Amino acid sequence: MQESQLLKIANEFGSPVYVYDGHKIENQYKRLTSAFKNVKKLKLNYAVKALSNISVLKLLHSLGSGIDTVSIQEVQLGLAAGFKPEQIIFTPNGVSLNEIEEAAKLGVKINIDNLSILEQFGAKHPNTPVCIRINPHVMAGGNANISVGHIDSKFGISIHQIPHILRIVENTKMNINGIHMHTGSDILDIEVFLYASEILFETAKQFDNLEFIDFGSGFKVPYKPGDIETNIEELGKKLSKRFNDFCKDYGKELTLAFEPGKFLVSESGYFLAQVNAVKQTTSTVFAQVDSGFNHLIRPMFYGSHHEISNISNLKGRERFYTVVGYICETDTFGNNRRINEINEGDILAFKNAGAYCFSMASNYNSRLRPAEVLWYNEKAHLIRKRETFDDILHNQIAVDFSEQKETVAAK
């Protein structure tokens, strides 16, 4: 998107505001499908947790995507967006058997990563096909909080527990239709991913009725100019050949599945915030914006980098600023950044704000959550209204303590 378009959106819809470029989402989807064009059966299941706005889901549905969900609410959201149950896979962690049964009743694909739950579900519902999430014990990902395939992870059933899985399957006569793994996010080295894939292929040989193998995702996108990203094209070439060879040996054409989230939507997103004040201290120049980690928590939570530009002053001379928010805690978006000269009232654009940004927003400090806008076919579509103070009070129940005191006094 052009800076002029972003500035126009900020002026029209106010700030702070999230903006998503629908065409970038389309291009990323097509890039991934193109990389794996040599696989006969490919299924991309968008990870809803990355960005769950129903209009974004509808856009991905129109491209042919399925969805990966981690809560019953995400399943329901997917159904509301028009996805058929068979286009939805439910991949929770640590949820109750009741929630998994609720999802199964809706007809979606089930993915289980716990031996106890697997046995309980298989005993009660042996005819319901189940995918099993394996922990390959491979450390991958750009941050400890998003590396989920290592030995100490809470996710997946250990590859060392395959005999336990086989015993449960034999005892319950349940149908295992898929094998799944997810090593982590921000994967740099495709060789690590391919190594984990070999573990998954070896595991898949243990099951006779598979329909698909799900390799998760975690592909890294660039966060700044010259940044490293996952080489999707090379991965597509190598993994496609290995997958096709496996299918020949297996004697059946399986579906190769991925569950990309960040890869599809991260670069499409811009977070626009207005500068409230420029504050000079003895050592730092702060640009204080009308937002905080209540709207964009990733820099404080993951140490993530978001490029920041002053779209109100594109030709101004560059100076160094530390960009911070208005939350009553440290909420630094970027430290000592080189940005075109900032004045109060300017609009700053934060890039890579499509994934895990609005979806992790909160009402901390009783602040309102911002609006969301989808840019598509040269038009800005409002896809979520900015919250109002009534939204803050909604579902709160005010107790009248004066009446209680009068009752106590009367006694």
UniProtKB/TrEMBL annotation:
Pfam families: Orn_Arg_deC_N, Orn_DAP_Arg_deC. PANTHER family: DIAMINOPIMELATE DECARBOXYLASE (PTHR43727), GROUP IV DECARBOXYLASE (PTHR43727:SF2). It comes from the Bacteria. Pathway: Amino-acid biosynthesis; L-lysine biosynthesis via DAP pathway; L-lysine from DL-2,6-diaminopimelate: step 1/1. Residues 24-266 form the Orn/DAP/Arg decarboxylase 2 N-terminal domain. The modification N6-(pyridoxal phosphate)lysine is found at residue 49. GO terms for molecular function: diaminopimelate decarboxylase activity; pyridoxal phosphate binding. Its cofactor is pyridoxal 5'-phosphate. Homodimer. Gene3D superfamilies: Alanine racemase, Lyase, Ornithine Decarboxylase, Chain A, domain 1. The gene is lysA. It catalyses: meso-2,6-diaminopimelate + H(+) = L-lysine + CO2. It comes from Algibacter lectus. It is an enzyme of class 4 (lyase). CDD domains: PLPDE_III_DapDC (cd06828). Specifically catalyzes the decarboxylation of meso-diaminopimelate (meso-DAP) to L-lysine. Pyridoxal 5'-phosphate binds at residues 218, 356. This is Diaminopimelate decarboxylase. Transmembrane segments: none annotated. Residues 18-354 form the Orn/DAP/Arg decarboxylase 2 C-terminal domain. Its EC number is 4.1.1.20. Belongs to the Orn/Lys/Arg decarboxylase class-II family. LysA subfamily.
